[in-house]
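Quick review question:
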């Protein structure tokens, strides 16, 4: 078996740039309740620590116990970013307090320049961890469709320009996969092979559509030193924190 701590970095396959991780202090400027379960935290942080689409930061958002947790931004701003959390954690993150963080972590991502239609598949409970990719794509006059597997997925704060589809993935996948020029997937690992097969069936006579899956296991160190987030790919072992967290779905060993 290959050593998961000794691998080349494949970031250049899917990104235009990456940045070095920094230790920084962020300040909580605002807390906005999204619904009865969730809140959005507005952070101000140094520019060098601000994540780009596809990246995240490591911090203790108040959910403990000790290990740093990956925080995926919901929205990006010149002075910082926002992220989503539950109300229990939000109660410990009041405006005016500080949050120590490490970031940005991972590879920044950009869809191919020729892409006009982006599909984001969200099949896990919790925050829309890939939302910044869709928002960035929207600024390029691209069309965005969000496919939620949960029929009751919360939609508060999403742009009106997004096409929202909800329900079982099988209902919408054939049409949306045939439409998309690039696909980003946040789904349980056990569903990824089925999604890979569905993509091949939807575009049997076309060139392969770029499709990337978010792989986000525990990532306590952020530098690939602990090996906890090792990911097995067809090109060898990679680390979700340094080589991901987005991986081409065709490269994953599932």
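Suggested answer, residue by residue:
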């Amino acid at each position: 078996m290959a050593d998961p701590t000794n691998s080349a970095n494949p970031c250049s396959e899917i990104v235009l740039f990456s940045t070095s991780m920094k230790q920084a202090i962020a300040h909580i400027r605002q807390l906005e309740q999204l619904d009865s379960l969730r809140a959005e935290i507005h952070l101000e942080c140094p520019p060098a620590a601000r994540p780009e689409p596809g990246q995240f930061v490591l911090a203790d958002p108040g959910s403990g116990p000790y290990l740093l947790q990956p925080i995926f931004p919901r929205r990006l701003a010149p002075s910082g970013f926002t992220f989503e959390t539950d109300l229990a954690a939000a109660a410990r993150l009041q405006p005016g307090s500080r949050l120590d963080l490490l970031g940005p972590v991972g590879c920044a991502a950009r869809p191919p320049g020729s892409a006009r239609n982006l599909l984001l598949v969200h099949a896990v409970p919790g925050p829309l961890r890939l939302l910044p990719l869709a928002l960035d794509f929207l600024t390029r006059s691209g069309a965005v469709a969000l496919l939620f597997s949960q029929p009751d997925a919360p939609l508060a704060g999403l742009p009106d320009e997004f096409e929202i589809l909800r329900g079982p993935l099988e209902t919408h996948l054939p049409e949306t996969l045939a439409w998309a020029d690039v696909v980003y997937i946040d789904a349980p690992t056990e569903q990824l092979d089925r999604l890979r097969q569905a993509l091949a069936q939807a575009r049997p006579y076309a060139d392969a559509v770029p499709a990337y899956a978010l792989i986000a296991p525990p990532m306590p160190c952020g530098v690939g030193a602990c090996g906890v987030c090792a990911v097995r790919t067809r090109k060898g072992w990679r680390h979700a924190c340094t080589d991901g967290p987005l991986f081409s779905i065709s490269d994953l060993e599932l």
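Why it works: The chain has two domains: 22-105, 117-248. Residues 189-202 form the longest helix (14 residues).
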